[in-house]
Write a structure and sequence with these properties.
single chain, about 325 residues, mainly alpha, 14 helices, disordered N terminus
Length: about 325
């Protein structure tokens, strides 16, 4: 029998309720503040009226582009594992969707840990190795977003704050890449660092360092880095197409660059631990970008809510189905 979700290891063994509650409360406060910034000066009648004038058939191309982007990211995560250590593609996909499910239902974005543990339960992949590949994903994503942001900036109104945020994100991603090159090439250095952590045994330090080296292999192997970069760029272009198509649905003819900037800003904002699904954070980022294009705040908020819904509810539905299939696969794997 499969273990209940509460016992499946999706939460730390030693629960720290006070710390978790504080983190959740901080995330809710961040979301509340940003939600207020997004809805201030919004006319409720104009907000509702924007939905009434929407050409909803644009949801078809927007949704198709979103599905294609998800498939590209699914394949990318699978390719980030070292050859010979890659889990089955189906198990990777289920874990990927489970991670999105947890990010959309719980505060503080626990989806990365959830999908790593799901992959361990179904395919036996070490949790630390899966988390390391997830960290590599974030490096690829942030660097790609900064490049796309810089390429599109001359063609769109970009404020000083947005430029500063992009530079800061790029600097952090570059620093992470340097750390990976220094510690990820040879596990001995990382093992020495981990061995100094209190209450961490030498065996655990050795095992974790080996898993990290395997997990970040794509950042030091061009044969893995090239397809990862191509799939990352492809996924962001597809997400931008999805956002652009929805702009057309709301009769906001701002061009592809506007869709790209909205998607880039919203996804960068979602890196901040906040409320379940990033409610408030997503909308504030989208409204801020559209304000630079002189879009009325009421119309901008209606578009932001629709785009967020398109990027939230399908993940919840498909993620729940993936969790059911995952539970069945774990049960079959453990049955004699």
């Amino acid at each position: 029998m499969a273990e209940p979700l509460a016992q499946a290891g999706f939460a730390p063994r030693r629960a720290r309720p006070l710390r978790r509650c504080a983190l959740a409360a901080a995330g809710l406060c961040v979301s509340a503040v940003l939600a207020w910034l997004a809805i201030r000066s919004v006319d409720p009648h104009a907000f509702v009226g924007a939905f009434r004038r929407t050409e909803w058939w644009y949801l078809l191309p927007s949704g198709a582009a979103l599905v294609a982007a998800v498939l590209a990211r699914w394949l990318r995560w699978w390719l980030l594992f070292a050859p010979g250590r890659r889990p089955p593609l189906g198990a990777v996909g289920r874990a990927f969707l489970i991670g999105h499910l947890f990010n959309n239902l719980l505060p503080a974005r626990p989806g990365e840990l959830a999908r790593a543990i799901a992959l361990r339960r179904e395919a036996g992949t070490p949790v630390v190795e899966a988390l390391a590949t997830t960290a590599a994903e974030r490096v690829y994503d942030v660097l790609a977003l900064v490049v796309l942001f810089g390429a599109s900036a001359p063609f769109a109104p970009v404020g000083r704050d947005a430029r500063t945020a992009a530079v800061a994100a790029g600097t952090i991603a570059a620093a992470a890449l340097v750390v990976v090159v220094v510690f990820g090439r040879d596990g001995a250095r990382l093992e020495r660092v981990l061995s100094r952590v209190p209450r961490l045994s030498a065996e655990t330090a050795r095992r974790w360092s080996a898993s990290v080296v395997h997990g970040v292999v794509s950042l030091r192997d061009p044969r893995l880095a090239v397809p990862a970069v191509l799939l990352t760029a492809t996924s962001w272009v597809l997400l931008a197409l999805s956002g652009w198509a929805l702009l057309l649905a709301f009769q906001l003819h701002l061009g592809f660059v506007a869709g790209l900037l909205v998607v880039a800003a919203a996804n960068l904002a979602l890196l901040v631990p906040a409320s379940p699904g990033g409610v408030g954070v997503f909308e504030a980022a989208a409204v801020t970008v559209l304000a630079g294009f002189s879009v009325d705040r009421s119309a901008a908020l209606s578009y932001a809510v629709a785009l967020h819904g398109l990027n939230l509810f399908p993940y919840v539905l498909v993620g729940a189905l993936a969790l059911l299939h995952h539970t069945r696969a774990v049960r079959e794997r453990r049955s004699p």
